[in-house]
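Reopening closed ticket. The problem is back. First fold of the pair:
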Amino acid sequence: MSGPSVALTQPTSMGATALVEGVSATAGFAIMAGLLFATAPHNGEFWYSDAPRHALNGAFVKDLIAAMPRDPEAWAADYYIRYPALTILFYPPLFYVVLAPFYAVFGVSHATALAVEMLHYVLLALGTYALARRWFGPIAAFGVGLAVMASPEAALWGRQVMLDIPALAFAVWAMVALGRYLDTKRGSLLYLAVFLLLCAVYTKINAAFLFPVLALTILASKGWGALRERNIQLAALFAVAGMVPIAVLTVKFGGANLQSVLGAADVPVSRFSLANLVWYAQELPSLTGWPLLLLAIAGAILFAARRDGLLTRTDAVLLGSWFIVSYLFLTMIDLKGTRHALILLPPILVAAGLAASSLLPRRRLGEFTLLVFVVVLGIHTLRDVPVPSVSGYRSAAEWIAAHAGKNAIVLFSGERDGSYIFNLRQADNGQDITTLRSDKLLLSIAVSRELGVEQRSYSEEEIASLLDRDGVSYVVAQDGFWTDLAVMARLETVLRSPHFVEVMQLPIVANVPTSDKRLRIYRNAGEVNPHPGPFDVELPIIGRTLNGKAQRE
């Protein structure tokens, strides 16, 4: 009787222990997420231009589902006319689909969007913990998972409404599922790995870099005979079929993304140069901090010398190809940015855990040392690395929502149009206020001003007449916005003429240097057209012109 009793008791005990460890780790990550949320701007103080656009895209999905229009294309055009900061097809859509039900329950707000970002952050840390738990004890695995939240660069972009952390969360869980598949040979786990990696791609497209990693890891484990296995063949077809829609969307609507890969005009380094090859290597210290980076380098050396005793050949292919393949793909992209290197973070942190678990005579001491490093890094990140924030745009949007009146048409002229427009959507409360952008009214810009701009040759009288004709009752304008361009200087002259009356000044307050210092709100004293016609909005980035109307009764 004793034999069967032991066999039944042991797995139950191990399962209970794993459950307690997992719950404890999740609680720790949730606490860290709460601290990150508390130290992040979440009241409309957007700094990075893409963040409010991602938040607004989720509102679009939520409003589209609520409206259930008979003509979705026309409805979408009208929505863009009202809120001309949408990028819904320029980026993959999954994060916005996830965000929409949270908006439906908790309301459209910066805080709601950031809370959803934090949810993904917890899932990323938990996935990194699960991945590290394959090789390390619970203390080291928790340290590795916590490190992905304590990293200054990850915490910077994870405390904004951005796609990097959500995409990485899906990618890490895909690799966890891949590892379980290789352990158990269960085909369902392979399909889950492919599905999760597709979810990562449909959140941020550069996660596609990891499909070769998945394939190389399977080949390292099974050899070329894997190509004859039915589950692997079907999983490959699943992956290819899943990539087709996002490829079509990227070609059709993501021209700027393709340009950043294939030939951006303002690249910091030449693609075929040593400076390009080492560009991301130079950014690694800011990605992880020097202590963890040095541990990671030591871990790589230990494995190369076959002195770690923890990784199998397949493990090494998974982690090594994750880093090398992703790094090589990053070097081929002309657009550079440290945040893009976040895809490298999990294998680097696992390598750091490998060193901490192997260098000291007692493994437990090494694991505690790693955890101490990470906790110190987290304290430094929370205390000394604030997230940039820029306030003033929410106040402007709330003033307009309170004073402009139902169905008003307002011109916005400033560089943070996304922040103003999302805050207006948050504050609208059924006012159905439409925003026109001065850069779209008076200029033609493909992606950014640095890549080229064309001015329309309007005189001051024509600008005033244009605003009257388009029904613009108020203008929210940043002082000196692009006034080095003649037509934008004329707009500012018109706003300071008797044709407009200044009714409010709002200071722009930031914790980082910015060129925008003050917003002014003007009321149109001219004869405003009460029934403006449909608006044409050029979208040079996708080679289309939208025709839509303001939502007026």
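Second fold of the pair, where the issue appears:
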Amino acid sequence: MFDVSPSGERVAFVWNKTGRNELYLLDLTTHAIAQLTRHGKGVSSPAFSPTGSQLLFAQDHDGDERWDYHLLDLLDLPTGATRCVWEQDAAGYAPAHWLPQGDAFVAIYAIAGRMTLCRIDATTGAATSLTRHAYQDNAAAVSRDGAWVAFDAHTTGQERGGFVMRADGSDLRALPVSDAAHLRFSPDGAQVAFQSMRESEDIGVFDMSTGAVRWLATNAWDETQPEWSPDGSCLLYILNDDGAHSVQVVDAASGEGVARIAPEDGVVESAQFARVGASVVFTFSNHRTPASLWEYDFAARRCAPLTAGIEAEVDRDAFIQPHFVRYASHDGLSVPALVYPSRTRGKDAGAIVLIHGGPTWAYTNFWHVAPQHFAQVGYTVICPNYRGSTGYGRAYQYLNRYDLGRGDVLDCVAGANWLLREGFAGASRLGVTGASQGGYMTMMCLAKHARYWAAGSSLIGYFNWFTEFATEREDLRYWDVQNMGDPATPAGEARFRDRSPIFFLDGVRAPVQLIAGRTDPRCPVAETEQVHDLLVKRGVPVELTIYEDEGHGFAKVENKIDAYRKRADFFTKHLHHEGTKARS
């Protein structure tokens, strides 16, 4: 997470160098880095004020996602004093965008069961809701003159509607496309760039005066996150070419290529123009390089790192290179997957199916500690991009609608079959694990496909669709209705019951590990506690770890390390123990 200053000469970014996510300031000329916060709690989403003299950032309470917004005066850096301008009493989203006068910003948080776009007074903290529709607002942007606000909202299915309105919430207009996200005004406010899921994610430009849309980038692979150059002559976006990302810079009028930016094969997560358009700052990682800031200089045509992590201290060649494979699922669907080969390949080494969360997400060639750790200690790891994953087009992503917990789980089971066929593990040497949606799917694998697994570790998961639906964050509840149905209807109730592993725990045969965070607003800790108690009653060997100061995903480095070690020790115990066998 980073932001480039209005002058283009400084970058504010979040870094966990101290073991906590703290705020730092980087001078692009001298490359000097100053630590701005020492809160000991996670911070997020820095945003420079219009004059560049202040930084707005968000901070929650041990992962509860009830973001408070703080202001830091960059003219008084020696003190590092901050002022809390707004305290949220409900879960929301961390990113905020300044209005150009510098007296207010827009942010999104939950009001009466709906994620709502609000205007926040930067002095008093008074919040005014700007939208009053039935959808769940997701992300916003403000025109340079402050006259207009653009935002996207979750509408139907997995689609996001794009909207523009005046800054006071009046004159609401919908973009004439069924799906639009990451809206960005051109510097003159005449156009809005956006990404839209058609056959795949494409880049479009909406004309504010005519209402017309022209398509600037339409590739077979996804193009996302458009950003304008300071003078409006160019646009950049991120191209995902089968898991390898690059920044593409194009002429904003013609779409002709200006530059392709990528240090090497890997993943770019976000990018912005800097130095008044003379460079691009971006985040980059791959299997050998943890996420760090980079800069591309147009004149020199060269990429250079701005921050360095552990790759500066260790042999990068020691990290294991993953590769992509495809295998057939139960219904013949071709499932892409990333495979991390074990350093000691063989049936005695064992293998692990690592299931991603989301579910609208995907494994790519980024820095990912879990599969790297497993492969280093001797397991082959397969990371399936099951149906519903991003990066493979609209049709593939939508295959999981009303099928969550069935087809996607069978895709992961097919990954286990691939490991067995390829000789990476024997039947008593297979483990399954994942976090969030992956934690849920792990338990579905253990409960409904027990014969494959010698052990399963579920992190920050949910296990009962009914209780999850009743207690989860508002926008997630809306998504569930759109993609699983309404549990108040007979069809929805039947689907919720059939896809809830808590009702099928009699099928679990392998030892189970459960890990969760106490303050999690997405998969509340009660989900983990209730399935733990029932597994204990059924005599299933089960380990439970709850981090009292963590939410959905762990922010504190010591907790991450502890969780990774516990999971690796769990699999070492059960995948290598001769007395443990998966049973049908």
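Update: turned out to be a display glitch only; the data is intact. The chain is about 15% helix and 35% strand. Confidence is low (pLDDT under 50) at residues 577-584. Please close again.
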